[in-house]
Write a structure and sequence with these properties.
8 helices, elongated, alpha+beta, single chain
Length: about 210
């Protein structure tokens, strides 16, 4: 209603030999006033519905068997499969966000918190750094270490993309969009249906399994 373009178009649509500029302005003003009245909160109230309970079907939390199927889906016979397996395993064992995984360096994978092996998230949500202890779920490092070894990655970005032409590893980090695409490449069977998994599903699974 504050758009000059809209007002100009209304003027043009009302242009005729009989209409004076004053008459056209009066009609345009009347139309916009009626429109403003029609969408005023007192005449067109918006009802806000708050949800007290959310059905389980709205979220996906993997069972142990489903998590095993997911991590086994990429295989470890190819470089891409090895990377994707390591990536999925690390998500399930630490519950980190896609942005946090994208920013991981090799040195972040093995830090200590109170003498316990932990993952260092240098910049998490709200620009906060934190350490995530692996605990009994340090098995994911078997796959991560193999990916780094086979990929000859000793420093810098831990997870990287591939060149499309020759499928070799690039120096650049795997992007957040790339990470989301990787996770969604491997659907899991849930109640007889194949369901795409997103990163936050793995975060929920980590919290529930923990």
């Amino acid at each position: 209603m504050q758009s000059t373009t809209l007002r100009d178009r209304l003027y043009v649509s009302l242009t005729s030999a009989e209409d004076s500029p004053a008459n056209r302005k009066a009609v345009v003003d009347e139309l916009l006033t009626r429109l403003q009245n029609a969408v005023h909160p007192t005449t067109a109230p918006v009802t806000v519905t708050s949800a007290q309970d959310t059905p389980d079907s709205a979220f996906l939390r993997l069972t142990k068997a489903q998590a095993q199927d997911l991590t086994g889906a990429p295989g470890i016979d190819s470089l891409k499969g090895l990377r994707d397996t390591a990536l999925l395993a690390l998500f399930l064992c630490t519950g980190i966000r896609e942005m946090e995984l994208a920013g991981l360096n090799v040195a972040d994978l093995r830090q200590k918190l109170d003498g316990e092996l932990a993952l260092h998230v240098r910049q998490g949500k709200g620009a906060k750094a934190r350490l995530v202890p692996y605990g009994e779920m340090d098995w994911c490092l078997v796959f991560v270490d193999r990916w780094l070894t086979v990929g000859s990655i000793t420093e810098g970005a831990a997870f990287r993309s591939f060149w499309k032409v020759n499928k070799t590893i690039r120096d650049s980090r795997l992007s957040v969009r790339g990470i989301i695409d990787v996770v969604q490449c491997y659907p899991v069977m849930v109640d007889g249906d194949l369901r795409r998994v997103n990163v936050h599903d793995l975060r929920r699974t980590y919290a529930r399994r923990l």
